[in-house]
Design a protein that fits this description.
Elements: H1 3-25, E1 40-46, E2 53-58, E3 63-68, E4 74-77, E5 83-88, E6 91-95, H2 99-103, E7 126-130, E8 134-137, E9 160-171, E10 174-184, H3 190-201, H4 222-241, H5 243-251, H6 257-283, H7 288-304, H8 309-312, H9 322-334, H10 336-364
Length: 365
């Protein structure tokens, strides 16, 4: 089997494996850019001065987190005033008799019917969920619980306070309250980032100039390298820029290890396919244009389309400046146009030349 056919089959096999990972990972693997992208920003505005205890919001408005490094246990109260969480030196415990334990597993509390032995007056049933001294959860007091706009947001283009929120907790026998504020933040124009991405990826087409003087259509002809290398540089740079997303998958939100590992594996796979396509394109060997096309498609799907919401919302869970997150997503989407064009043009030229090359080879024999 020709080397090009092997490369094509292997590349598409890896790309399909990557898409399967996206489907299996679902929203869990999107934390850091995709599912966390929103136009709401929730933040703690006031918390009691308790040594060793700190509160923080992650994912713009998605998770509320508490850390208790003191030697006294802290209890977070649920929506009916019942004990929900215990966080302290012995670890983190959830009350399986609290409705909040089940409701807080989903962003919008879409958890179906609750067990019968759940209620504010039911004796707590504690189950350890972590050996550490911090925990995060979807606290529905700290974010907006509807897909529709809040009544207070009469003009989506204007920053608006949606609500003030409170979460009660007890420590050392005293009830305390952590307070916060939820705001609507208008989304910036996605067109700006798309236009900038177009400008930055156009150099991928510079190799088209080589076709004007190309006379040799053999598989190792100089024009192949000249055409492929500018596109390979653009694809390679965009793939490397997505390493920032790998950092976000691992560190932007303190999710459980398996969830972060799945997200990181998904990101690393698509970056790897893109980088491999760029390398093969730079080498200009057999299958260079196919590798460029597959690499561009992997970055488009795995690092662009999957995180399109980052371009259309104002908040994203990232350790880097938000403009950088938007630009990288825009580049991941737009690069498929020039790099894909080079891949198609190169392969078509090789396909058109193939009968001529075979005829010349037959004539010499």
């Amino acid at each position: 089997m020709p080397a090009r056919s092997l490369l094509v089959r292997a590349s598409y096999l890896v790309l399909c494996a990557g898409m399967l990972l996206v489907v299996l990972a679902g929203p869990a693997a999107a934390h850091g850019r995709g599912s966390d992208a929103t136009n709401y920003r929730s933040q703690v505005t006031s918390e009691p001065d308790v040594p060793g205890v700190s509160w923080q919001v992650y994912g713009s408005d998605e998770f509320l987190s508490v850390t208790n490094a003191s030697d006294v246990e802290l209890t977070v109260l649920g929506y009916e005033g019942e004990p929900y969480l215990r966080v302290g030196p012995e670890g983190v415990f959830e009350n399986r008799a609290s409705a909040a334990t089940y409701q807080n597993t989903d962003r919008y509390a879409n958890v179906g019917e609750l067990p019968e032995d759940v209620g504010a007056n039911v004796e707590p049933r504690w189950q350890q969920v972590s050996g550490g001294n911090s925990y995060l959860w979807h606290d529905h007091r700290a974010h907006w619980m509807s897909q529709n706009l809040p009544p207070s947001v009469t003009d989506p283009s204007v920053e608006t306070v949606v609500q003030q929120w409170e979460v009660p907790f007890t420590i050392d026998g005293r009830e305390r309250i952590v307070e916060g504020e939820l705001r609507w933040i208008p989304a910036p124009s996605a067109g700006v980032w798309v236009a900038l991405a177009l400008l930055l990826t156009v150099p991928a087409l510079l190799g088209l100039r080589s076709l004007r003087s190309a006379l040799d259509d053999s598989p190792d002809a100089p024009w192949i390298t000249a055409l492929a290398r500018p596109a390979a540089v653009v694809l390679g740079v965009v793939a490397l820029l997505n390493l920032t997303h790998l950092v976000d998958d691992l560190f932007a939100v303190p999710l459980p290890g398996p969830t972060k590992a799945l997200a990181a594996a998904q990101t690393a796979l698509f970056i790897g396919i893109g980088a491999f396509g760029a390398l093969r394109g730079w080498q200009g060997r057999d299958g260079a244009f196919t590798a460029l096309g597959v690499g561009a498609g992997a970055i488009l799907i795995g690092q662009g389309v999957l995180y399109l919401s980052v371009l259309t919302t104002s908040q994203a869970a990232t350790l880097f400046p938000e403009f950088a997150a938007r630009l990288v997503v825009a580049l991941s989407i737009v690069q498929a146009l020039p790099v894909g064009a080079v891949a198609v043009i190169g392969n078509r030229r090789l396909a058109a030349a193939a009968p001529t090359v075979r005829s010349e080879a037959a004539a010499t024999t």
